Amino acid sequence: MNKTIIVSNRLPLQISIEGDKLNVTPSVGGLATGMKSVHAEGNGIWIGWSGITSEDLDSDLKSKVNAKIENAKCRAVELSSDDIDDYYLGFSNRTLWPLFHYFLEYTEFEKSHWEAYKRVNKKFAEVVLNTVEEGDTVWVQDYQLLLLPQLIKDVRPDITIGFFLHIPFPSYEIFRTFPWREELLTGMLGADLVGFHTYDYERHFLSSVKRIMRLEVNFNEITYYDRIIKVDSFPMGIDYNKFHDAALAHNNQNTEKSELQKRLDTHINEDNDKKFILSIDRLDYTKGIPNRIRAFENFLNTYPEYKEKVRLIMLTVPSRSNVPQYQKLKSETDELVGRINGEFSTVSWTPIWYFYRSLPFNNLIDLYTSSDVALITPVRDGMNLVAKEYVATRTNQDGVLILSEMAGAAKEMNEALLINPNSFEDFATALNKALKMPLEEQNSRMKILQKRLKRYDVEKWAKEFFKTLDETNQLQEVVISKKMNDKEEDLISEHYKNAKKRLVLLDYDGTLVGFKDNPQDAKPDEELYTILDKFENQKNTKLCLISGRDKATFNNWFGFKDYDLITDHGVWIRENKKWIPLEILKTEWMSNIKPILETFVDRTPGTFIEEKEYSLAWHYRTADPELAQIRTLELNTVLTSMVSNNELSVLQGNKVIEIKSSNVNKGRVTSQLLMKDNYDYVLVLGDDWTDEYMFEAAPEFATTIKVGYVKTKAKYKIKGPQKVRELLNKLI
Ligand code: GDG
Predict the structure, then answer these.
(1) CATH at residue 496
(2) Which residue puts its alpha carbon closest to atom 4 of ligand 1?
């Protein structure tokens, strides 16, 4: 039975060792809940680190721990304390975390940490590869494992892989500063579906893929050799019922009141006017804690009538306390709370109640249900589940959520009071508005928020992700339709060998050689000459290179060889070492078109004009891909209106627009060649849109092969120049 393998940095288990007693309890976090049904299904397995380093496990304890882990349908990746220091605390939390949250000043680019990150991702890959079987699906979670998808795909291309990033994906301008950016993107592109919380993260990722990897992106699909990778947003939800039901039980007093609740009640009962404002976060610099405290101070000064009336309850949960920035944040927070409490407190009122600890779930519910306002103001946050949990617990549909625009959650929680966390004014206005908001308005806002959260809960989130992953598989089938398989390759080779008279037509750029930034750099290499020479020496074989390149360049590269050459899309042919024009073409039009192309070059950095004898080409492969997309549309419109007299045509090639006489194309010249002899075997290879003319003109029995996995009239598709060379070698 096919299974789903979930992979995350940590296993969803808490393991504690006391003496010889081993305690293993399931984690209750959002991810663990979301995956519960996926994990429980069939023989689903969760792979991750147990939380105990290998140094702390002797072999006896290790087998006991592993047995418990296996029992919980999990499998452990063993990590040493060095791994944790360098991969987790180092690279994940001192490089990726600050960089992806736009804290460039905190980002360390430490080579040894990067090496550890690669090493540990490989350790995860090993365990996954030992676990995965045909037909399984792997779902990789979060920023600690960005390289894992490709490590799996390399070995098991047949396995479907999903990846979800829980933190923001930064804009290209931030991401480009990262020294190993290409490797990181390559790692992620091993997945068949890459998911983010919001559309903004999705578009930032696509923008980096376009600019750094220079890949074709069509809406939200990336073409990556023979694969299509889908990118989409899936805003993670919470276990709505768990929070809502806990709050109902709490409010109906089905459970005994906690000490904390009793204390809260004392204050609530003191005076109807007294209000609680709540914030809950891990103590992390992304959560905007110091700013929130300062903004609260400003609020009290702006609206002094709230003094002695409102309290800010701040629950900050200890996190990553061995990373220096977190230690600094802790002292800054302590100091700010101390100062403000010192400044405003009276004998009966302390403005900030500050808890630096983690509280049990029932206390969390006490806080959520007792607070009139939730003040969630991160400076950057992938999603923020606390905001959603607060809403879920408001069973009477009262209470107000103030939420930072910088949290992913803000995108789907429009009915909250959204603020810019850097604006003290926004804070003060929103707090005042929240504290004064009529119950009716609170209700109507809460109702809408709750409806959405209930519908799109964490289980739905996981389901939607899997549904899209399934669809990605179907997409894949369309792309790889016509992909040449080994059997077809053998058959082609057999036909070739048995043929009596052969015609071999080969396009050059993108077919025999890969693209270079500058077309003049895509020179033939020794290996290519050898292959072509061998073809030339085959009996009864006519080899012809057919290209849009100009005569001078081809003469320079192949002038001393015997093969036939066709250049300028079919304007010139060289047979028996003699160049003959196939067409007599006008060139007067060039002086009109060139200035137009020049204006496009001036306005589009990275583009240039190639002047050929009979055509003009505007190349844009090194330009900014988004700007190039706009400019190509513009240029096409301008040119089409100018060349409407049918004498000229505009060809859209691979990262090039070419204007040439309508009389010539590779198809016409292919037909002419075919008429010259009685061939019983025709092989045509090309990668570009202009090569489709050749495929069309080729006879029914011809073997036509498209290089690249895009729509084509050819019979087969193959991957790239390397694969072309392998095939040609096989024929000869
Ligand atoms: C990352 C992204 C994204 C907090 N204090 C206590 C406690 N919590 C629970 C909350 C909530 C969770 O921790 C915190 O989740 P967040 O989403 O707010 O934040 P991160 O930990 O930074 O998570 C974030 C998330 O991944 C999911 O994709 O939303 O943007 O940074 O569930 O309830 N739970 C208990 N005691 C506490 O004291 N029991």
Answers:
(1) 3.40.50.1000
(2) 281
